[in-house]
Amino acid sequence: MSWRSSKMRYNSQAALAFALVGAAAGVGGQEAPAARAEIVRLDVVVTDAKGAPVLDLTREDFAVLEDGKPQPVTSFEPARPRGLSTSAPTPPEPAAPVASADRPTGRQIVVVVDDLHLARDTVPPAKQALLRFVSEQISAEDEIAVVTTSSPGELQALTRNRTVVRDAIGRISSRESAMAAARGAQMTPAQAELILRGDQSALRLATRSLMDEPGSTLTAGSPRATVESTDGATPAGLDPGEKAAARESQREATAVLTGALRFSEMTLVTVDGVLRGLSSLPGRKLCLLVSDGFLVGKGTSEERTGLLRQVTDAATRSGAVVYALDARGLTPGGADASVSGPVMDPGLRERVAKLEKEESRETLQRLARDTGGLLVRETNDLGAGLGRMLADNEAFYLLAYEPANAKRDGRFRKIELRLPRHADFAVRTRAGYLAPDDRKPGKAPPRARLALPSLVAGPPALDAATLRTVLGAPVPPNGIPVLVTADYLDLPPEGPQAIVQARVDVAGLRWQQVDGRHKTDVEVLAGVYDANGNPVGLPFGRSFALDLTAPEYRQTREDGLRYAHRLPLSPGRYEIRVIVREPVLAPLGGASQSLEVPDLGTRTLTLSSLFVSTTSGAGAGEGEALRDAQLLRRFTRSDTLYFQIYVYNALPDEKDATDVVLQAQIRSGKDLIAASRPQAVTFQQKDGLPLPQGNGMSLESLAPGAYELRVVVADRKADATAYRSVAFTIE
Fold first, then answer.
1. Are the C-beta atoms of residues 471 and 617 closer than 8 Å to each other?
2. DSSP label of 6
3. What mean pLDDT do residues 676-703 have?
4. How far from 712 is each of 8, 605, 606, 660, 707, CA to CA, in Å?
5. What is the distance, to the nearest Å, from the Cα of residue 532 to the centroid of all Cα atoms in its chain?
6. Confidence category of residue 486, pLDDT binned at 50, 70, 90
7. Are the beta carbons of 697 and 640 closer than 8 angstroms?
8. 487 pLDDT band (50/70/90 cuts)?
9. Measured distance CA(651)–CA(654) in Å, rounded
10. 3-state SS string over 211-249?
11. How many Å apart are CA 554 and CA 378, to the nearest integer?
């Protein structure tokens, strides 16, 4: 087996141009669809005084008001138990896609586990309840996905495979310790919200607790008491020490609540993304939120109630409903015995604890109410609570109306649904939606700064908010195959960056044959998420309009549709998520890939990702172009395998000399099949850019099978070793 020195043409702007390939010929961008008139669809649940569903109402029984003004109902379908349907009228195009007239018997259920707001002691019973729910209460036709608020990027695909769902539930754990560490204070977020809203009981408790801490200088007559209050909120009737402690408590409350609201935002953004991701799916769509409750800063300067309206808008547009389950069950309403400190007033701590519980539960109540769902609370039988949610969905009415107010001003439109003839019935539906906003035309995402001219990338036709919604949508099981690679390198002037490549198996796309040509439209959409599942930067992607001759079509089926993108990333762990879909439809397939961007500031020996390419036959001559093999990494015995890699942070001596060697190895399982002679690593540049290390080998002596290419680099001066490896196959 012979290894040969790599002699490849280096691009004048970057040495890894071969790793980034163009998509199929004849592709182009696609314009975003034109704006549509708003049609509001409502799923309506009506119950009698005993909570039983009411199924015999007619269109004339309902009165719809938007911002207090009556709206004519343009479409109506009576309630029917799940599985039965009527012939529904076809209204004008709605703001959210309309499901088929035949209501599917199965439901689309996404369980959102708010692990950011689940205490350790509520996680085990919540997991057990969810497992029983999956095993005993859902039907065979229901599709389920599980997502956690701490990692929304790890959304499990909707599936009927109960084993997959149970495995996802089994991985749930509490992130309470992360919240507490971020908060860094003994004061609870709920108490902080009460204080900032002016509740005197909560402030008095915090003040006394602060003064009673061992070593506290905030006592009666404290010199700090002479500091004047700047907020005017310090209660009257306190001695100087208490006034100083009250001001300190208010400052602490601001810091505590601000920190807690970051986690609340993560929860609400996750729920919003789930709802919008469900918009294109048919049938009854449910979001089951399992949480101990959280805050939105209501009545304070840190208020986040606008996010609740966004979630309500998402539910209205997607036709989905949020049901909330307070996982605390029948928790005691009295004081928390774990809180230290003397009780200066026997009832004070208990009163504040009760208020805190109501505060954290209020957000769950509003989320459920404003999306047409309900909150299950005060029960230790969490499984029965989940079952109650499903029972609530057995029958519902469908209404639609065209709003009389056509202004596209971005304002929230409040929806009220009344039953004038049946005042004793309870009616639940969504509380409103956000009107489109044409006052501030959106800007297309800026083009990524590209240093590689062979890179195929461009601004997607969709805005960033829509792209994130699509990326949060469940990926269908058994969808069209998508391969994704995410690789790291560090090159000036951008510094650390990721190279994302995707290959779409076009055989699964919906093709049309027109005049002997093969046509289809497809979107490749991608986004980056950090270790906590939060989006990083703008999403990216491209719309392709394929119009291929018969030979081009055959070649594209063989090669796949290729997409590549390059973006800067700071050091950290990431997940790159890629979704493939037909324009404005649900995802057809998708894949994700993890990536770690190392921190070169540590000055330790570090390697870029390992990039592989190939030529067929005897090998590559001087200046011969190479064929990228980074995605598939499939070869024949007649191919020549080449690799490239960058070496960073080699330790120089006093003369700025380095002593670094590289060895390439071929492995099969644990066995070393072949290894190159160690070669010296030389740090050269061309056109102001560093050149990678490279080598190549003929594969003719290897039998078909699976192998590993491992490149090992040793820095003798630093006594350090690092390696990178990739798997490949010889067919």
1. no
2. -
3. 87
4. 21, 12, 11, 11, 16
5. 9
6. very high
7. yes
8. very high
9. 10
10. HCCCCCCCCCCCHHHHCCCCCCCCCCCCCHHHHHHHHHH
11. 62
Query: CA 83, CA 87: separation in Å to the nearest integer?
Result: 13
Which residue is listed with tokens 């971005």? 410
The C-alpha atoms of residue 174 and residue 357 are separated, in whole angstroms, by: 19
3-state secondary structure of 663: strand
| Burial grade of 534 (CB within 10 A; 0-12, 13-18, 19 or more) | middle
Positive or negative CA dihedral for 626, 627, 630, 636? negative
Q: Could you tell me the pLDDT band of residue 464, with boundaries at 50, 70 and 90? A: low
pLDDT grade, residue 237 (50/70/90)? low
In eight-state DSSP terms, residue 134 is I
Which of 81-90, 447-456, 642-651 has the largest mean confidence?
A: 642-651
Q: Indicate if the pLDDT at residue 255 is higher than 90.
A: no
Using CA atoms, how far residue 620 sits from 623, 639, 674, 693, 697, in Å, is 8, 10, 21, 16, 10
Question: What is the pLDDT at residue 477?
Answer: 62
* Nearest partner of 211 among 347, 349, 344, judged by Cα: 344
Dist. CA 495–CA 198, nearest whole Å: 49
What's 115's DSSP letter?
G
Per-residue tokens: 223: 């010199």
Beta strand pairing call for 720-730 and 634-635 = parallel
CB 392 within 8 A of CB 376: no
Q: How far apart are CA 446 and CA 444, in angstroms?
A: 6
Reading the block at residue 125, the tokens are: 């019973």
- Residue 684 burial (CB count, 10 A): 9
Q: Is the CA virtual torsion 403, 405, 411, 417 positive or negative?
A: negative
3.30.365.10, 3.40.630.30, 3.10.50.40, 3.40.50.410: which CATH number matches 106-400? 3.40.50.410
Reported confidence tier of residue 345, pLDDT bands at 50, 70, 90: low
Tracing tokens 């509740």 back to the chain, one arrives at 199
pLDDT tens-digit series, residues 58-70: 999 999 999 999 9
What average pLDDT score do residues 463-482 get? 69
**pTM, 2 dp:** 0.55
What does the alpha-carbon distance between residue 290 and residue 376 come to, in Å, rounded to a whole number? 10
pLDDT for the residue numbered 238: 56
By three-state DSSP, how is residue 419 classified?
coil
DSSP bridge partners of 685? 690
pLDDT band at 29 (very low <50, low <70, confident <90, very high): very low
Q: What is the pLDDT of residue 12?
A: 25
CA distance 238 to 246: 9
pLDDT (0 to 100) of residue 651: 92
- Do 322 and 374 form a contact (C-beta atoms < 8 A)? no
Which residues lie across from 285 on neighbouring strands? 108, 320
Q: What is the largest CA-CA distance in the chain?
A: 93
Domain regions of the chain by residue span: 3-29+445-730, 41-104+401-434, 106-400
Position 284 confidence tier, pLDDT thresholds 50, 70, 90: confident
322: nearest Cα among 386, 356, 381, 371: 371
The secondary element (H helix, E strand) that includes residue 255 is helix 240-277
How many residues are listed for the chain in this entry? 731
Pairwise CA distance, residues 642 & 627, whole Å: 10
Q: Per-residue pLDDT averaged across 86-96, rounded?
A: 35
Q: Which pair of tokens denotes residue 536?
A: 């990083």
SS3 62: coil
- Average pLDDT (249-263) is 85
Q: Which pLDDT band holds residue 289 (cuts at 50, 70, 90)?
A: very high
**Residue 724: its H or E element:** strand 720-730
